[in-house]
Amino acid sequence: xxxxxxxxxGTNSIRLLITDVPTTVSGKSPSDVVRRMEIxxxxxxxxxxxxxxxxxxxxxxxxxxxxxxxxxxxxxxRVRMVATSATRDARNRADFEAMxxxxxxxxxEVISGTEEAALSxxxxxxxxxxxxxxxxxxxxVVDIGxxxxxxxxxxxxxxxxxxxxxxCVRLTERHLASDPPTPDQIGAAxxxxxxxxxxxxxxxxxxxxxxxxxxxxxxxxxxxxxLGLSAYDPVVIHHSRIPVGAVRSTTAGLLTMSRSQRADxxxxxxxxxxxxxxxxxILRVVMDAWEIDEVLVSEHDILDGIAASLADPS
Length: 314
Prior knowledge:
Helix 6 (168-174) packs across helix 12 (276-289), helix 7 (183-203) crosses helix 12 and helix 10 packs antiparallel against helix 12. The chain has two domains: 2-111, 2-Layer Sandwich (Nucleotidyltransferase, domain 5); 117-297, Nucleotidyltransferase, domain 5 (2-Layer Sandwich), CATH 3.30.420.150. It is 44% helix and 21% strand. The longest helix is centred in the middle third of the chain and has 21 residues, at 183-203. The chain contains 13 helices and eleven strands. The strands form two sheets. A six-stranded mixed sheet has the order 8-7-6-9-11-10, sandwiched between helices. A five-stranded mixed sheet has the order 3-2-1-4-5, with helices on both faces. By secondary structure, the chain is α/β, with parallel strands linked by helices. The mean pLDDT is 91. The radius of gyration is 18 Å and the shape is globular. Strand 1 (2-9) and strand 2 form a beta hairpin. The protein has helices spanning 46-49, 54-73, 85-89, 93-104, 113-125, 168-174, 183-203, 216-226, 234-237, 244-256, 259-263, 276-289, 302-309, and strands at 2-9, 13-21, 31-39, 78-83, 109-110, 139-144, 149-154, 158-164, 211-215, 241-243, 294-297.
Protein backbone atom coordinates (compact mmCIF):
# COMPACT_ATOMS: atom_id res chain seq x y z
CA UNK A 1 0.00 0.00 0.00
CA UNK A 2 1.06 3.58 -0.66
CA UNK A 3 -0.13 6.65 1.23
CA UNK A 4 -1.23 9.40 -1.13
CA UNK A 5 -3.01 12.75 -0.87
CA UNK A 6 -5.53 14.10 -3.35
CA UNK A 7 -6.68 17.72 -3.28
CA UNK A 8 -9.58 19.04 -5.34
CA UNK A 9 -10.02 22.80 -5.49
CA GLY A 10 -13.28 23.80 -7.12
CA THR A 11 -15.45 26.86 -7.33
CA ASN A 12 -17.09 26.38 -3.93
CA SER A 13 -14.87 24.10 -1.86
CA ILE A 14 -11.39 22.72 -1.40
CA ARG A 15 -11.23 19.09 -0.33
CA LEU A 16 -8.53 16.72 0.87
CA LEU A 17 -8.36 12.93 0.76
CA ILE A 18 -5.46 11.06 2.35
CA THR A 19 -5.72 7.37 1.62
CA ASP A 20 -3.67 4.20 1.46
CA VAL A 21 -3.95 2.78 -2.06
CA PRO A 22 -2.88 -0.66 -3.31
CA THR A 23 0.05 -0.54 -5.72
CA THR A 24 -0.64 -3.96 -7.25
CA VAL A 25 -3.72 -5.72 -8.56
CA SER A 26 -4.55 -7.38 -5.24
CA GLY A 27 -8.31 -6.96 -4.97
CA LYS A 28 -7.80 -4.68 -1.97
CA SER A 29 -9.71 -1.43 -1.72
CA PRO A 30 -8.20 1.93 -0.79
CA SER A 31 -8.26 2.65 2.94
CA ASP A 32 -9.18 6.22 3.76
CA VAL A 33 -7.18 8.00 6.44
CA VAL A 34 -8.61 11.54 6.21
CA ARG A 35 -11.39 13.26 4.28
CA ARG A 36 -11.78 17.00 4.77
CA MET A 37 -13.68 19.81 3.14
CA GLU A 38 -13.60 23.57 3.57
CA ILE A 39 -15.97 25.95 1.82
CA UNK A 40 -13.70 28.72 0.51
CA UNK A 41 -15.84 29.97 -2.40
CA UNK A 42 -12.74 30.47 -4.60
CA UNK A 43 -14.97 31.21 -7.58
CA UNK A 44 -17.12 33.86 -5.90
CA UNK A 45 -17.84 36.52 -8.52
CA UNK A 46 -15.65 34.97 -11.21
CA UNK A 47 -18.61 34.51 -13.57
CA UNK A 48 -19.11 38.29 -13.53
CA UNK A 49 -15.56 39.63 -13.17
CA UNK A 50 -13.49 36.96 -14.90
CA UNK A 51 -11.00 37.04 -12.00
CA UNK A 52 -10.40 35.30 -8.69
CA UNK A 53 -10.89 37.78 -5.86
CA UNK A 54 -7.84 38.31 -3.61
CA UNK A 55 -9.91 37.51 -0.52
CA UNK A 56 -11.03 34.22 -2.12
CA UNK A 57 -7.43 33.25 -2.85
CA UNK A 58 -6.58 34.09 0.78
CA UNK A 59 -9.41 31.90 2.10
CA UNK A 60 -8.08 29.07 -0.05
CA UNK A 61 -4.51 29.67 1.17
CA UNK A 62 -5.59 29.32 4.80
CA UNK A 63 -7.35 26.00 4.13
CA UNK A 64 -4.50 24.68 1.99
CA UNK A 65 -1.95 25.55 4.68
CA UNK A 66 -3.82 23.31 7.13
CA UNK A 67 -3.98 20.55 4.54
CA UNK A 68 -0.23 20.79 3.87
CA UNK A 69 0.50 20.42 7.59
CA UNK A 70 -1.64 17.30 7.84
CA UNK A 71 -0.04 15.82 4.71
CA UNK A 72 3.38 16.27 6.32
CA UNK A 73 2.25 14.86 9.69
CA UNK A 74 0.82 11.71 8.08
CA UNK A 75 3.92 11.01 5.98
CA UNK A 76 2.22 11.07 2.60
CA UNK A 77 4.37 9.72 -0.25
CA ARG A 78 2.71 11.41 -3.23
CA VAL A 79 0.46 14.46 -3.57
CA ARG A 80 -1.65 15.65 -6.49
CA MET A 81 -3.76 18.80 -6.42
CA VAL A 82 -6.13 19.74 -9.21
CA ALA A 83 -8.08 22.94 -9.76
CA THR A 84 -11.19 23.09 -11.90
CA SER A 85 -13.84 25.45 -13.23
CA ALA A 86 -13.21 28.73 -11.38
CA THR A 87 -9.46 28.60 -11.98
CA ARG A 88 -9.85 27.60 -15.62
CA ASP A 89 -12.03 30.67 -16.17
CA ALA A 90 -9.90 33.23 -14.32
CA ARG A 91 -7.60 35.72 -16.05
CA ASN A 92 -5.46 35.95 -12.91
CA ARG A 93 -5.04 32.21 -12.33
CA ALA A 94 -1.26 32.79 -12.11
CA ASP A 95 -1.83 34.46 -8.71
CA PHE A 96 -3.60 31.33 -7.48
CA GLU A 97 -0.96 29.02 -8.95
CA ALA A 98 1.86 30.97 -7.27
CA MET A 99 0.07 30.74 -3.92
CA UNK A 100 -0.35 26.97 -4.24
CA UNK A 101 3.31 26.44 -5.13
CA UNK A 102 4.36 28.52 -2.13
CA UNK A 103 2.14 26.61 0.31
CA UNK A 104 2.28 23.08 -1.07
CA UNK A 105 5.73 23.06 -2.66
CA UNK A 106 4.24 21.90 -5.94
CA UNK A 107 1.91 23.53 -8.47
CA UNK A 108 -1.78 22.81 -8.82
CA GLU A 109 -2.84 21.22 -12.08
CA VAL A 110 -5.51 23.34 -13.73
CA ILE A 111 -7.21 20.50 -15.56
CA SER A 112 -9.55 20.58 -18.51
CA GLY A 113 -13.21 19.72 -18.25
CA THR A 114 -12.48 16.47 -20.11
CA GLU A 115 -9.87 15.36 -17.58
CA GLU A 116 -12.10 16.45 -14.71
CA ALA A 117 -14.87 14.27 -16.13
CA ALA A 118 -12.58 11.25 -16.49
CA LEU A 119 -11.31 11.51 -12.92
CA SER A 120 -14.86 11.88 -11.60
CA UNK A 121 -15.95 8.79 -13.54
CA UNK A 122 -13.15 6.67 -12.07
CA UNK A 123 -13.91 7.84 -8.54
CA UNK A 124 -17.65 7.25 -8.86
CA UNK A 125 -17.63 3.84 -10.50
CA UNK A 126 -14.81 2.00 -8.73
CA UNK A 127 -16.21 -0.78 -6.59
CA UNK A 128 -19.74 -0.78 -8.06
CA UNK A 129 -19.39 -4.40 -9.16
CA UNK A 130 -18.83 -5.43 -5.53
CA UNK A 131 -22.22 -4.14 -4.38
CA UNK A 132 -24.84 -6.73 -3.40
CA UNK A 133 -27.18 -5.21 -5.99
CA UNK A 134 -24.81 -3.71 -8.56
CA UNK A 135 -26.26 -1.11 -10.93
CA UNK A 136 -26.37 -1.87 -14.62
CA UNK A 137 -24.12 -0.16 -17.12
CA UNK A 138 -23.95 2.15 -18.96
CA UNK A 139 -23.38 4.75 -16.28
CA UNK A 140 -24.09 8.45 -16.66
CA VAL A 141 -21.98 10.22 -14.05
CA VAL A 142 -23.14 13.77 -13.32
CA ASP A 143 -20.79 15.81 -11.14
CA ILE A 144 -22.52 19.05 -10.07
CA GLY A 145 -19.88 21.54 -9.04
CA UNK A 146 -19.89 25.19 -8.14
CA UNK A 147 -18.96 26.56 -11.54
CA UNK A 148 -19.50 23.66 -13.92
CA UNK A 149 -21.20 20.30 -14.20
CA UNK A 150 -19.53 17.30 -15.82
CA UNK A 151 -21.51 14.69 -17.74
CA UNK A 152 -19.67 11.42 -18.32
CA UNK A 153 -21.00 8.31 -20.05
CA UNK A 154 -19.25 4.96 -19.93
CA UNK A 155 -19.07 1.37 -18.82
CA UNK A 156 -15.59 0.19 -17.82
CA UNK A 157 -14.13 3.33 -19.36
CA UNK A 158 -15.39 6.72 -20.51
CA UNK A 159 -17.06 6.74 -23.93
CA UNK A 160 -18.18 10.38 -24.02
CA UNK A 161 -18.09 13.43 -21.77
CA UNK A 162 -18.73 17.14 -21.67
CA UNK A 163 -18.22 19.88 -19.08
CA UNK A 164 -20.70 22.77 -19.20
CA UNK A 165 -20.74 26.06 -17.31
CA UNK A 166 -23.72 25.40 -15.08
CA UNK A 167 -22.96 25.01 -11.39
CA CYS A 168 -24.61 25.83 -8.09
CA VAL A 169 -22.53 28.96 -7.42
CA ARG A 170 -22.65 30.23 -11.00
CA LEU A 171 -26.43 29.82 -11.34
CA THR A 172 -27.09 31.34 -7.92
CA GLU A 173 -25.03 34.41 -8.77
CA ARG A 174 -26.66 34.74 -12.19
CA HIS A 175 -30.29 34.22 -11.25
CA LEU A 176 -31.32 33.36 -7.69
CA ALA A 177 -30.97 36.75 -6.03
CA SER A 178 -34.09 36.83 -3.84
CA ASP A 179 -34.66 35.07 -0.53
CA PRO A 180 -36.31 32.77 -1.41
CA PRO A 181 -35.89 33.02 -5.19
CA THR A 182 -38.91 34.10 -7.22
CA PRO A 183 -40.60 31.83 -9.77
CA ASP A 184 -39.18 34.00 -12.57
CA GLN A 185 -35.65 33.64 -11.18
CA ILE A 186 -36.07 29.87 -10.90
CA GLY A 187 -37.44 29.77 -14.44
CA ALA A 188 -34.43 31.69 -15.76
CA ALA A 189 -32.04 29.30 -14.02
CA UNK A 190 -33.92 26.29 -15.38
CA UNK A 191 -33.75 27.78 -18.87
CA UNK A 192 -29.95 28.05 -18.56
CA UNK A 193 -29.77 24.41 -17.49
CA UNK A 194 -31.93 23.18 -20.37
CA UNK A 195 -29.83 25.12 -22.91
CA UNK A 196 -26.71 23.45 -21.49
CA UNK A 197 -28.35 20.02 -21.63
CA UNK A 198 -29.02 20.45 -25.34
CA UNK A 199 -25.27 20.90 -25.81
CA UNK A 200 -24.61 17.84 -23.67
CA UNK A 201 -27.00 15.71 -25.72
CA UNK A 202 -25.07 16.58 -28.89
CA UNK A 203 -21.81 15.21 -27.44
CA UNK A 204 -22.94 12.58 -24.94
CA UNK A 205 -25.42 10.08 -26.43
CA UNK A 206 -27.72 9.39 -23.49
CA UNK A 207 -28.83 5.78 -23.72
CA UNK A 208 -31.82 4.17 -22.10
CA UNK A 209 -31.73 2.45 -19.76
CA UNK A 210 -28.86 4.24 -18.05
CA UNK A 211 -27.78 4.34 -14.41
CA UNK A 212 -27.50 7.95 -13.26
CA UNK A 213 -24.75 8.40 -10.67
CA UNK A 214 -24.86 11.78 -8.94
CA UNK A 215 -21.80 13.30 -7.33
CA UNK A 216 -20.73 16.20 -5.14
CA UNK A 217 -22.23 18.15 -2.28
CA UNK A 218 -25.42 19.32 -3.97
CA UNK A 219 -26.43 15.74 -4.76
CA UNK A 220 -25.43 14.28 -1.40
CA UNK A 221 -27.26 17.06 0.44
CA UNK A 222 -30.42 16.49 -1.60
CA UNK A 223 -30.12 12.79 -0.72
CA UNK A 224 -29.71 13.57 2.98
CA UNK A 225 -32.83 15.76 2.95
CA UNK A 226 -34.83 13.26 0.89
CA LEU A 227 -33.85 10.42 3.24
CA GLY A 228 -34.96 12.45 6.27
CA LEU A 229 -31.66 11.95 8.10
CA SER A 230 -31.30 13.39 11.59
CA ALA A 231 -27.62 14.12 10.88
CA TYR A 232 -25.44 14.05 7.78
CA ASP A 233 -24.25 10.44 7.48
CA PRO A 234 -21.99 9.67 4.48
CA VAL A 235 -22.23 5.93 5.10
CA VAL A 236 -26.02 5.98 4.71
CA ILE A 237 -25.90 8.43 1.80
CA HIS A 238 -23.23 6.57 -0.20
CA HIS A 239 -24.91 4.38 -2.84
CA SER A 240 -28.40 5.34 -1.71
CA ARG A 241 -31.00 5.41 -4.49
CA ILE A 242 -33.25 8.47 -4.58
CA PRO A 243 -36.32 8.32 -6.86
CA VAL A 244 -37.11 11.24 -9.13
CA GLY A 245 -40.28 12.06 -7.18
CA ALA A 246 -38.23 12.61 -4.02
CA VAL A 247 -35.74 14.75 -5.96
CA ARG A 248 -38.60 16.88 -7.30
CA SER A 249 -40.21 17.41 -3.90
CA THR A 250 -36.89 18.08 -2.16
CA THR A 251 -35.87 20.60 -4.83
CA ALA A 252 -39.20 22.39 -4.64
CA GLY A 253 -38.91 22.58 -0.87
CA LEU A 254 -35.37 23.97 -0.92
CA LEU A 255 -36.29 26.61 -3.49
CA THR A 256 -39.26 27.84 -1.45
CA MET A 257 -37.39 27.99 1.86
CA SER A 258 -35.75 31.16 3.11
CA ARG A 259 -32.04 31.20 3.78
CA SER A 260 -32.63 30.84 7.52
CA GLN A 261 -34.92 27.85 6.98
CA ARG A 262 -32.29 26.10 4.84
CA ALA A 263 -29.64 26.87 7.44
CA ASP A 264 -31.78 25.18 10.09
CA UNK A 265 -31.77 21.85 8.24
CA UNK A 266 -29.64 19.51 10.34
CA UNK A 267 -27.94 17.96 7.29
CA UNK A 268 -27.02 21.30 5.69
CA UNK A 269 -23.37 22.33 5.59
CA UNK A 270 -23.20 26.09 6.29
CA UNK A 271 -21.25 26.67 3.10
CA UNK A 272 -24.03 25.18 0.98
CA UNK A 273 -26.94 27.17 2.39
CA UNK A 274 -26.80 29.86 -0.29
CA UNK A 275 -26.30 27.58 -3.30
CA UNK A 276 -28.13 24.31 -2.57
CA UNK A 277 -31.30 25.42 -4.39
CA UNK A 278 -29.45 25.83 -7.67
CA UNK A 279 -27.59 22.54 -7.20
CA UNK A 280 -30.81 20.66 -6.51
CA UNK A 281 -32.44 22.32 -9.53
CA ILE A 282 -29.68 21.05 -11.83
CA LEU A 283 -30.22 17.49 -10.62
CA ARG A 284 -34.01 17.73 -10.96
CA VAL A 285 -33.88 19.17 -14.50
CA VAL A 286 -31.38 16.50 -15.61
CA MET A 287 -33.64 13.71 -14.37
CA ASP A 288 -36.78 15.24 -15.89
CA ALA A 289 -35.16 16.09 -19.23
CA TRP A 290 -33.90 12.56 -19.78
CA GLU A 291 -36.74 10.74 -17.99
CA ILE A 292 -34.46 9.08 -15.43
CA ASP A 293 -36.33 7.37 -12.60
CA GLU A 294 -33.70 7.45 -9.84
CA VAL A 295 -30.23 8.67 -8.98
CA LEU A 296 -27.57 6.49 -7.39
CA VAL A 297 -25.78 8.83 -4.99
CA SER A 298 -22.01 8.55 -4.55
CA GLU A 299 -19.85 10.05 -1.84
CA HIS A 300 -16.86 9.06 -3.97
CA ASP A 301 -15.94 11.38 -6.81
CA ILE A 302 -13.03 13.23 -8.39
CA LEU A 303 -11.04 13.04 -5.14
CA ASP A 304 -11.05 9.25 -5.35
CA GLY A 305 -10.15 9.44 -9.03
CA ILE A 306 -7.17 11.66 -8.23
CA ALA A 307 -6.05 9.25 -5.51
CA ALA A 308 -6.36 6.30 -7.89
CA SER A 309 -4.12 8.09 -10.38
CA LEU A 310 -1.37 8.14 -7.74
CA ALA A 311 -1.44 4.38 -7.17
CA ASP A 312 0.87 3.67 -10.11
CA PRO A 313 4.34 3.01 -8.65
CA SER A 314 5.91 5.08 -11.44
